[in-house]
Design goal:
Layout lengths: L18 H4 L8 H14 L2 H6 L16 E13 L6 E12 L2 E14 L2 E7 H4 L1
Antiparallel strand pairs: 1-2, 2-3, 3-4
Bound molecules: zinc ion.
């Protein structure tokens, strides 16, 4: 099998990067890696992974990905906390996409918490304060 580039553009192959988190072979050790793997899950359409890494308190009941959206690049802009020994952290990012030939992007400061040794996405900081 030809190695594919990880959609999070870390420069690693998908298998060695976010793919191992998506398959459950490993758990993202930092909030940034969870953020990257969630972006990659959007890119490859892995809804199950998005649900598993979403805090049950904030995870939407309906989670449908728009197949017309093509995720093209992720820029991680700022990381606070979120290390292997932290219980919480924030990651600021801009995710670029294309929809019907139009370029767009989504900017968010996301809040993550670590529960039971696993990082979970809570939501945008403004909505969860
Ligand atoms: Zn990756």
């Amino acid at each position: 099998m030809t190695p594919t580039r990880c959609p999070c553009l870390s420069g690693e192959t998908y298998d060695d990067c976010c793919g191992r988190f998506h398959t459950g072979r490993a758990h993202a050790p930092t909030a940034e890696q969870l953020m990257r793997s969630r972006y990659a899950a959007f890119a490859v359409g892995d809804v199950g992974y998005l649900r598993r890494t979403w805090h049950p308190r904030t995870c939407p009941a309906d989670l449908d990905l728009d197949p017309a959206v093509r995720w093209t690049r992720l820029d991680v802009l700022d990381v606070r906390g979120g290390g292997p020994f932290d219980a919480a952290g924030t990651v600021e990012f801009r995710a670029h996409h294309r929809l019907d030939g139009e370029r767009g992007s989504q900017h968010e400061v996301s809040r993550f918490v670590r529960e039971g040794g696993r990082w979970l996405y809570v939501g945008p900081v403004d909505e969860t304060r």
